[in-house]
What we know:
Elements: H1 2-29, H2 35-44, H3 50-63, H4 77-103, H5 106-113, H6 116-127, H7 134-150, H8 164-194, H9 201-225, H10 228-238, H11 243-270, H12 273-295, H13 301-328, H14 332-339, H15 342-348
Helix pairs in contact: 1-11, 1-12, 2-4, 2-9, 2-11, 3-9, 4-8, 4-9, 5-12, 6-8, 6-12, 7-12, 7-13, 8-11, 8-12, 9-11, 10-11, 11-12, 12-13
Amino acid sequence: MRKALLVINCIILSIGNCGGPLITRLYFIHGGNRIWFSSWLEAAGCPIILLPIACAYMHRSRTADPTSENKLFYMERPLFLAAIVLGIITGLDNYFYSYGLSRLPVSTSSLIISSQLAFTAGFAYLLVKQKFTAYSINAVFLLTIGAGVLALHSSSDRPANEPNREYIMGFVMTLAASALYGFILPLVELTFKKAKQEISYALVMEIQLVMCLVATAFCTVGMLINNDFKVVGREAREFELGETKYYVVVISSAILWQCFFLGGIGVVFCASSLLSGIVVSFLLPVTELLAVISFNETFQAEKGVSLALSLWGFLSYFYGDIKQSKKKKPDPKTEITSSLPPNTVESSV
């Protein structure tokens, strides 16, 4: 069951990880320029999580013991407070990322964001004592090298007439977003491990809901200070693709980023923060290819090499994981022998 849930969350994460940056970049290149609003959209789609939470509640109502209490929300106070802290950090991370994507093309932004794997691995080792195998180290190495290969021609992706100061600020903010996200994933895993209540997937969705509500509130304050609410209507009318498509972009952005966050935290729940970081890094070259197709960004041979290295690293991790799982499985013969009474074992010898 957990493996099936892991696959589903990987698919959800893939949709959000590839679609989120593209739709946000589409917003910026066609006339959108409100960074706080873009940050707000990354978390504001959280009410859609109420639907699966309600489905889980109805399922429990039908299958649970009639004498047991069935609540819509199971989150207790310590976990609620932890989710609030995670939400504030997520809101700040959203702002950093949106600022960077407003200044950089998707390909360059993806290159910088790929460094999150190194941050995730480091923080996972410090916070949750993540154990590394030769295969997981190889995966991190290959995925990092794949990102480094992209750097060889990243300067050719620089937007025309982009001021040097703005480009550097975009680079710095994206790097900060990468480091912060690399910290969030192990922190979520640590929260799961330290929780004083049983963590179910329904509870994971509750945590995600609270995190995004807090992140939305954080960005709402930024929007109020920056007067974004007063400008959104005018921005929609002046959007190059038309007012209707502006709202389609806005709604799509909110939904896709929810897929990213829910898929990411779901992979942490089913496996580990390291695997969540590896999936994100593996998908970055895929996002590069989609950016080439969608926005006519240049595609050099280095991007193809990066994609191949990322695929190799991704497969290396899962090959190692399969080998580890086989080692943990007990030998059936040994299991049968150990289950026999002592005198039976001696006679069989």
